Every structure is written in structure tokens, then in C-alpha cells.
Amino acid sequence: MDQYLVPVINGVLPRPGGGEVTGVFLDPLTARMLSEMGPDSTVVLCPYDAEQGSVYPAGVLTRILEMWVQDVFLYGPHTRVSALFARVLGEERVRATRVASQGDLMIAAGVKKLDVSDLRSERYPVIDGAGWQPVGGNTEMKSPRDLPVTIYGVEFESGRQVHIDGNVGGVVSPEQAHTIEHAIIRSLQTYAMCTPKTLARAIAQEGRELEASVEIGYKMKRPEIFGVTSSGACGNPMTNLAQFYLATEMVEGIESGQSVIESLETARRKALSQLTDELELTSEVGLRALQGLKKGMLHDDNPLAQKYLKKVLNRFPPSPWH
Questions:
Q1: H or E element: which one contains 71?
Q2: Cα dihedral sign for 193, 195, 201, 203?
Q3: CA distances in angstroms from 85 to 62, 65, 174, 243, listed in the order given
Q4: Do the strands 132-139 and 127-128 form a parallel or antiparallel pair, or are they unpaired?
Q5: Per-residue DSSP letters for 194-260?
Q6: Which of 61, 25, 36, 13 minimizes the C-alpha distance to 192?
Q7: Pairing mode, if any, of strands 3-8 and 42-49?
Q8: Residues 21/88, Cβ–Cβ less than 8 Å
Q9: Are 11 and 75 in contact (CB under 8 A)?
Q10: How does pLDDT run across 147-205, given as a tens digit for each residue?
């Protein structure tokens, strides 16, 4: 079966079996296609991986319930434009054999049902992100064999908080557990699914961005950048200390009579110096980013073998509703 495909850039997919979401479509070609199809038509929503520049072929077959045009404001130029809104109903999880093009439109070719339970029974554990999206997480480093990881999220339909828990103790180190927490969040936000393959990709990307936050933070003298990636802000000793020192020094500067701008610049320099001394970090360019990642942020971005990635994902339920 072939279906029209609409790429989704934020990993938001409706829950299969009756979940509803409302999407905004700014692309004129997509908006025209959906308008011509009309209500009661079906379309496959698939995540778009901006880093890879490609569509992830696992998505949700949806039915269009209603559509309307409404003005929205775009950030940046603050321009008001007309956009197509569509409320869709999630029918079932599907996977496309391949993604093809038909003129300016995209086609999901060879669409087949994707059963998450079957995948897990075949020893290919996955976490399904359809119907909810993670917003944060927490890793408790109790002991090498007791490392509870919690991913917090929001259910699209009700807006209520949901979560998934998994104890990865005995499988990975505490530093790897912290990295896995962030990587699962990143994978679900990007692909609405976390598999061993996407988890490995997310671990690598998370490590690169965290290292970059350290190097850029030092280079630009901006300690507030430490630990900030495209998947959110990382809670860790280095980031927390940077925020504490920055706030403390800024208050002292203002109280001593400095302007807000002067106190901020002074606080940034002092915070960097205090942080480097406190964590005993090197000032050597390149090495300080790696040291900041592993020592200051308690992250380990070393690649994990597939068997360990599978063991990690097996510690988590397939979704918040299981």
C-alpha cells in the first residue's frame, strides 16, 4: 500500500488507535496537498531528521478529521502568515518500505503495519514515542548496580504528565546512564521512537553537542552555555555550578554599584575561573571540552555495542501506558 507522506519536524505523532493531534503546516505544497485531499482522507505522518536530512520511515497512519486556515506569527522576522491547521486521528503504527517522490510530494511506498510488541518479542526492544513527548529526565546514581533512569513527558490528548522508568544498573556505568537518559529523550523527540540504532546515533550527537557547549562557553566567555544542547539543558555539576557562580557574582557586582551589563561580564569571567578551579579542569583548548564532558558533566559518550543498547532498552516499558 502506498500513501501520501507528510514529514514532521518535532517528533509529534498521534497515539495509534484513536489519539488526536493538531498540526500546523506552513509548507505551501503540503498545505495544498492536504486541502485537496480533504477530511476523511488518510496520510502517513513520519518524523523528519534534520541532522540526517532524511525522513524516518516509521510513522503513524492518520485520518484527517478537519482542516482550517488561520494566521500565525513566525519568529525571527515576526511575520504574520496564513497557515493550514489539521486535526488528525492516529489509526495505526506503520513503516514504509521506502520513501519516494511524486512531483513535489512525498509518498510512503510499501506501507506495512508496525507492531511494537512484535518487535520487542523479536528481541529488538523499542520505546514508542507516539502520543506523548518527553520533556526531561532524571538519573539517580545510587550504585553501579542501581541506576534508576526516569523520562518525564506529556500526553498530547490530555496534557497530563506521564513517564517511563528503567533501572540500567549492571549494564552501563553511572556516566553512561546519564548519557542514555539524554539520548532517549533526544531520540524520542526526533523520531517519536527509540531503537538501538537511533539510541546509538543520539548518544553520539548528544556527546558532540555537550562538548561543543563547553568549548564555545569558554571561547565566548559564556558559562551559561555549558550543558545546553538542542534536546534541552543538562543537569550536572558543571552546569549547576556555572549557574550558581554566575548568579552569585552578578548580584555582588550590582550591589557594589556596577551596571547590569558590567556586573554580568564580570560575573562571567569570575564564574569561569571559579568553575575551572573547583572542578580542576585544564585550560587547554580541545582537551578542556572532553574533560568538561566526562569530569564536569558526568557524561560518557563512548559508543556502546548493540547488545548493551538492547539490554538498556529492555529495562524500559514500550510506552508510558504499559
A1: strand 58-74
A2: positive
A3: 15, 11, 44, 40
A4: unpaired
A5: E-HHHHHHHHHHHHHHHHHHHHHHHHTT-GGGTTEETTEE--SHHHHHHHHHHHHHHHHHHHTT--H
A6: 13
A7: parallel
A8: yes
A9: no
A10: 999 999 999 989 999 999 999 999 999 989 999 999 999 999 999 999 999 999 999 99
C-alpha cell at 25: 503546516
Give the tens place of pLDDT for each residue, 269-295. Answer: 999 999 888 888 877 777 888 888 888
With cell 557574582, the residue in question is 249
Cell of 129: 514515542
To the nearest 10°, report the CA torsion of 206, 195, 133, 222.
0
Kindly list the domain boundaries of the chain, sorted by start residue: 3-114, 131-322
Residue count of the chain: 322
Domain 3-114 belongs to what architecture?
Roll (2.30)
Question: C-alpha cell of 88?
Answer: 488528525
Cα 45 → chain centroid: 18
